[in-house]
Amino acid sequence: LPYVADLYDNFESFGLTRLPGIRTLYRRAVSRAAAVSCVSATLAAHIQTTCQPIGPVIALESTINAGQFQPLNRAACRQQLGLPLNARLIGTAGALDHNRGIDTLYQAFNSLAERDSNLHLVLAGSASADSPIPAHPRILYLGELPHDHMPTLFNALDIAIICIRDTAFGRYSFPQKAYEMLACGVPLIAAAVGSVGDLLREDRYSLYRPDDAQDLAEKIIGQLTQFRAPNLVIPTWVDQAEKLERLLQRIILAE
User: Would you say residue 86 has pLDDT above 90?
Assistant: First the structure.
């Protein structure tokens, strides 16, 4: 039967592909798909090159529900989460581990905190033993918040940060929180890697060199001096569903 492959990550970067034959079988399965949808444009280009599928390949990024993520009152959001009302808050959410580059953020914050006693780092997500959260009185760890708390968290921040490393995983990923943060109208800083780097390429003040804590610190200072939130069109899940529907109709007509 014809089938569609929906690739949420660059699965070739996963440890399972070290088993003999797995990568060959994976590429064969993708190459024979009637169509392929990928979580990012960079992954779509990679799949075209490495697998050469017989069917069309599209990028289908993870995104937001219309109306769920939007600008909210900052003071109210901080009060709801128990965060200091008058502090300068930078932060992120998600997997807080070495593979995602969280150490770069820790290093950048430590250097800035020495110069700015009002700067706090807010974290939410799953902490990792390979990159323990530093013991610092102005690092505020909120634990693993429910997803419906994310609009409150992002709107509480002065600057939202996305850490990505330039790896076989990071180059082809598209963190869903990128669209979530942008929809909240919060100034954003992200690593200049893959599709997120492409998304923000016109806003150089929003990009830092991956694994470069000094460059990240300089970008944070720049954003704190003059807040600038990228103005981009953000697709909704309905938009993405319609895009997938057109792909499926194309396959049905071809069959």
Answer: yes
Which amino acid does the sequence have at 176? Q
Nearest to 219 by CA among 235, 203, 198, 232: 203
Amino acid letter, residue 252:
I
Q: Are strands 207-208 and 35-38 parallel, antiparallel or unpaired?
A: unpaired
Q: Write out 127-160 in H/E/C secondary structure.
A: EECCECCCCCCCEEECCCCCHHHHHHHHHHCCEE
Q: 183-211: per-residue pLDDT in tens? A: 999 999 999 999 999 999 888 889 999 99
The residues that bridge with 6 in the sheet, in sequence order, are: 37
- Give residue 177's identity as a one-letter amino acid code: K
Contact between 133 and 164 under an 8 Å Cβ cutoff? The reply is: no
Token pair for 224: 């704190």
Please list the alpha-helical segments (H only) found in 87-143.
102-113
